[in-house]
């Protein structure tokens, strides 16, 4: 009986791994389709052709293209949060934290250039699709919370919780706006240059906070 349970457990783990791999395959193919053709122009047939799978296989894993769209956003949210923590966690505690934070922001903006087109797709369709709107709102909330957590060690002794959250929201809003401008007008609105100028300008203010 014990060996049978062990065998059943091993089979279950294998099936679970294969299902996760298939979902990842569908998600990556759908991302490419949404990025290249937009949400409305992309169909389940388009995704299946890109992923080289049957429609039956697609519908086994996702009820609709809206669901895979949301799964892309939620997966992206987890990845972005992990990378944000990795980028900023040490930077804010560094002796030259303004320099480190500036470089971390610049790296994130460079990375953001690749995902902005699909991000804008999410934003457009969030106004009409409740499922997408909730997923996008969750992403924004998690992003603001993550930034606040990163800022808290440096600001908590000097600023209230509401102020820290407000600063985090403004930083995230600036990041979003700068990244979009960078995509639209890269020659005159290079976001990495803007970030460096901004951080240089506010540096004395942050140093006063720390004194």
Give your account of this protein's structure.
The protein has 2 domains: 1-62, Arc Repressor Mutant, subunit A, CATH 1.10.10; 65-210, Tetracycline Repressor, domain 2, CATH 1.10.357. Helices cover 82% and strands 0% of the residues. Helix 4 runs parallel beside helix 7 (130-155). It has helices spanning 2-37, 44-51, 55-61, 65-88, 97-112, 116-126, 130-155, 161-184, 191-210. With 211 residues, the chain is mostly helical.
Chain-wise SSE layout:
Layout (H helix, E strand, L loop, with lengths): L1 H36 L6 H8 L3 H7 L3 H24 L8 H16 L3 H11 L3 H26 L5 H24 L6 H20 L1
Helix pairs in contact: 1-2, 1-4, 4-7, 5-9, 6-7, 7-8
Q: Number of helix segments? A: 9
- Mind telling me the C-alpha Rg? 21 Å
Question: Which geometry do the CA atoms define?
Answer: elongated
Helix-strand pattern: HHHHHHHHH
Helix content: over 70%
User: What is the arithmetic mean of pLDDT?
Assistant: 79
Describe the sheet with the most strands: none
Number of domains: 2
Structural class: mainly alpha
The CATH C-level class name of the largest domain: Mainly Alpha
User: Percent of residues in beta strands?
Assistant: under 5%
Strand elements, count: 0
CATH superfamily annotation of the largest domain: Tetracycline Repressor, domain 2
**In terms of per-residue confidence, which ranges show pLDDT below 50 for 5 or more consecutive residues?**
none
What fold name goes in the CATH topology slot of the largest domain?
Answer: Tetracycline Repressor, domain 2
The appropriate CATH architecture of the largest domain is: Orthogonal Bundle
Q: Give the termini separation.
A: 68 Å
């Amino acid at each position: 009986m014990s060996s049978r349970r062990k065998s059943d457990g091993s089979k279950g783990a294998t099936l679970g791994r294969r299902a996760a791999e298939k979902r990842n395959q569908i998600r990556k193919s759908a991302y490419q389709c949404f990025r290249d053709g937009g949400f409305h122009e992309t169909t389940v047939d388009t995704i299946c052709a890109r992923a080289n799978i049957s429609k039956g296989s697609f519908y086994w894993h996702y009820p609709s293209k809206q669901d895979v769209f949301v799964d892309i956003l939620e997966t992206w949210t987890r990845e972005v949060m992990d990378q944000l923590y990795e980028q900023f966690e040490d930077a804010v505690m560094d002796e030259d934290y303004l320099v480190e934070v500036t470089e971390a922001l610049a790296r994130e903006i460079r990375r953001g250039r690749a995902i902005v087109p699909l991000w804008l797709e999410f934003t457009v369709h969030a106004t009409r699709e409740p499922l997408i709107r909730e997923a996008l709102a969750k992403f924004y909330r998690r992003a603001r919370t993550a930034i606040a957590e990163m800022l808290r060690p440096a600001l908590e002794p000097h600023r209230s919780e509401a102020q820290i959250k407000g600063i985090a929201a403004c930083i995230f809003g600036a990041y979003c706006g700068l990244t979009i401008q960078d995509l639209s007008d890269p020659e005159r609105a290079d976001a990495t240059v803007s970030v460096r100028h901004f951080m240089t300008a506010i540096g004395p203010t942050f140093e006063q906070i720390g004194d």
